[in-house]
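We both want to read discrete structure tokens more fluently, so let's practise on a single case. Once you have written the record down, we can walk along the chain together.
***
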Amino acid sequence: MPSSSARGAHRLLDRMSYAFRMLDDIALADLAFEAEGDSLENLFRGATQAIIEILANPATIGSAWERTIHRQDVDAATLLFDWLSDLVYWKDAAGVVYRDVQLSLAYRAGKWELEARMHGAPVDPVTQELRSDVKGVTKHLYDLSQRGSRWYARVVLDV
């Protein structure tokens, strides 16, 4: 079991079919995580959950704000990068943090299609447990790969 660090960020969160863990030894000035899933869709869910929990404790976030995102790309790695960047963009553009995101991913006509519904609330440091203010998703050490039957992504965030 990983131990806690000064950032308190070395965690492993298992969800039914995906997980993520913080990578304290990858990016000293930034935050990094590795997400995994038993399918590409579940990898997207794990990476999404990592961003949600890096931003704030989702248990302290309401659901007064909602937005639906549709994206598609022929390249799954590009789609994941753009999707995670959307989460950071809407955090800043709408001034929100997220309680949860429901997403689906499908491969149709040579393209990966993502549909996601984000639920959250405007930032309120009095009632919400805010964590890190992510400024962007970087391409530094960014990777999406399939190893055996599982999918993995390594993501470094600019904070």
About this structure: The longest helix spans residues 76-93. Confidence is low (pLDDT under 50) at residues 1-15.
